[in-house]
Specification:
By secondary structure, the chain is α/β, with parallel strands linked by helices. The chain contains 17 helices and 14 strands.
Length: about 500
């Protein structure tokens, strides 16, 4: 699918003279895609006792994963239960959680770079006991990186770490290249993939908030106004001017997003007036949420192996086996160390998660790091105050497992009631998933009843056919005797024909 798109842009020759806007956009994206990136990874390890030295980030994720695994056994979660999960061996019988090591983290950065349209031309990984406060990785290593990047004609350095403003300036001064840290790269991907006005506003807000603390010291143009005739009196530095402009823009964007929230709240009120439960899909980026969304709703939301292909939320209705309808919401994927500014900016979008009756937590069953990825999702859910929502774990991509293992997982009747194994791409396990969702939704509860409906009540009979499960039906003397399981919204309309 990815290879066919560039082919179209090559085969289609632009008309002489004026260049169409679409062709210009394609050309700009092609130019962006030619940027050559050199990746820099850093493995900062805390000093641990014996061989158990782990990164502080990995330890935090391990604790979150313990809480996530404990919470998956019920709808409530308590992060305090995970306090004993520190070391690899403990009195607990739970298996150890695989962690992102430095090489896997760098591989994820490689994927992020591809999603941003960059071509990776080299990479280097440094292991340190502690980060260098001035340059993160030390001046000597930077000189080595500058030479390696120059040898492959790199246009920019991508760091698999967040950089302070001073670190970024110091590194740029030495390597003479643009330097992008992990947060800035993720923001760029979001800006690239945002299609709706709402998504673009949310990304812009996050970018402005990221930019504010990094204004200081960005060159001679931000120096103090000089002295002399005509320059005395109330003046302001260029830095203060830029800061004021950004604050003004932030307020404007926040105002527009507030309007989005108000419209969403009105839409939600209209939805809530009808007894329709909202089920939200969450999960690590590229876990297959959009593919699962399309498989369940028959929608055509973009599903792509690129990270953060879905930014703009989509809601579609799904009919459950009980013939109740629910609203399924596809949301933006989460990632390790998701920038806090993005979580805040996308709060309007992620309100669907906060308001959902049920959260479908989609994981990649084929990934060795699925438990670690789940831990990162758990961190974001806590930030959204949605960690105590009823949850169903959906292990996706079983088609990438060994066939016998996949069949055993999908068909095992004694698996945990909070986990379903599916392949959204192959349509495996979706019937079981819908049945499990049906059993967990409390809105518009199902009742079993006996009815005697006159045959002339054609509308009522048609409604029962469409919205209720009919177990038995007998015709006698102009009356239809029926045994049905119907939601409360239907029961209210047929109450006068209930018998027994």
């Amino acid at each position: 699918m990815r290879s066919s798109h560039p082919k179209k842009t090559r085969d289609r020759a632009p008309a002489a003279g004026r260049v169409p806007l679409g062709a210009e956009t394609e050309r700009n994206e092609k130019q962006e895609a030619q940027e050559r990136a050199f990746l820099v990874g850093i493995d900062v390890r805390t000093r641990g006792r014996g061989k158990g030295a782990v990164t502080a980030q990995a330890q935090a994720a391990r604790d979150a994963a313990s809480a996530s695994n404990a919470g998956a056994q019920g709808s409530g979660q308590n992060s305090g239960q995970s306090s004993g999960q520190g070391s690899g061996k403990s009195s607990s019988n739970k298996p150890s959680i695989p962690e992102f090591d430095a090489d896997e983290s760098l591989a994820e950065l490689r994927t992020l770079a591809g999603s941003a349209g960059a071509k990776v031309v080299g990479e280097i990984l440094q292991r340190r006991d502690r980060p260098d406060p001035a340059t993160l990785i030390g001046g000597g290593k930077l000189e080595e990186i500058a030479g390696a990047a120059a040898s492959v004609n790199a246009d920019l350095l991508l760091f698999d770490h967040d950089l302070t403003a001073s670190q970024q300036r110091n590194i740029e001064r030495i390597v003479k290249l643009r330097v992008i840290d992990r947060t800035q790269l993720i923001l760029d991907i979001f800006a690239r993939h945002a299609r709706t006005r709402e998504g673009q506003l949310q990304v812009e807000l996050a970018q402005l908030q990221y930019m504010l603390p990094r204004l200081a010291g960005r060159g001679i143009e931000m120096s103090q106004l000089g002295g002399g005739i005509g320059t005395r009196g109330p003046g302001e530095t260029q830095l203060e001017t830029d800061r004021r402009k950004i604050y003004r823009r932030v307020r404007h964007v926040e105002q527009q997003l507030e309007n989005v929230r108000r419209i969403r709240a009105q839409q939600r009120q209209r939805r809530e007036s009808a007894p329709l439960a909202v089920v939200a899909l969450v999960g690590y980026t590229n876990a297959g949420k959009s593919t699962l969304f399309n498989a369940l709703t028959k929608a055509a939301v973009l599903s792509s192996p690129r990270m953060f292909a879905t930014l703009d939320p989509t809601i579609r209705s799904v009919v459950l086996p009980s013939k109740r309808k629910i609203l399924l919401s596809d949301t933006v994927g989460f990632i390790r160390s998701l920038p806090h500014t993005l979580v805040e900016a996308f709060r309007a979008t992620l309100e669907e998660v906060q308001r959902a009756s049920l959260i479908l937590h989609v994981s990649d069953a084929s990934s060795r790091l699925s438990a670690e990825q789940d831990a990162q999702v758990e961190i974001v859910l806590k930030e959204l105050e949605a960690e105590k929502k009823p949850r169903l774990r959906v292990m996706n991509k079983v088609d990438l497992l060994d066939v016998e293992v996949a069949n055993a997982l999908v068909n095992d009747p004694v698996l945990d009631a909070k986990t379903v194994y599916v392949s959204a791409a192959e349509g495996v396990g979706l019937v079981k998933l819908l049945a499990r969702i049906d059993g967990m939704i409390e809105e518009d509860p199902i009742s079993r009843l006996h009815l005697s409906v006159p045959q002339e009540e054609g509308k009522i009979l048609a409604m029962l056919e469409a919205k209720a499960r009919i177990y038995s039906r007998k015709y006698r003397g102009g009356v239809v005797d029926m045994t049905v399981a119907a939601p409360e919204s239907v029961v209210r309309k047929v109450r006068e024909w209930v018998v027994g």
